[in-house]
Amino acid sequence: MKDFILAALPWIVLGVTVVLVIAFVAKRLRKDRPPVESRGENSEEEKEEEEENYMAYGMCYGMCFGTAIGSALMSTLGTNALTYGICLGMLAGLVIGLNIKKQ
């Protein structure tokens, strides 16, 4: 069972990461595209500020917590626990950081 989890975990992380990146890029493209009525016009309207969030902070904290958890589990799961801890910590931090908006 341990071997199956260690073999499947990178693919699961890769799949979740691809889904998050596609959703983030699609949201960004929808936001940047002007409305249908004003696509041909050169009128200068106020640009909306870019949505600010805590993505970078979340990834940093997630990597730190993932390293700590991976180090704690290294004695039972081996050296791969550190690698998976860092990856999953950064992924969790990215998701949490994207969902918290700056005020």
Would you kindly provide a written description of the structure presented here, covering whatever features stand out?
With 103 residues, this protein is mainly alpha-helical. The protein has one domain. The chain has three helices and no strands. The chain has helices spanning 2-32, 55-77, 80-99. Helix 1 (2-32) packs parallel to helix 3. The chain is elongated and about 55 Å long. The termini are far apart.
Uncertain residue segments: 42-49
- Secondary-structure content class: mainly alpha
Distance between the termini: 45 Å
Shape: elongated
**Helix and strand sequence:** HHH
How big is the Rg? 19 Å
State the helix count. Answer: 3
- Biggest sheet, open or closed, and with what strands and sense? none
Number of strands: 0
Short synopsis of the structure:
The protein is an all-alpha fold and 103 residues long.
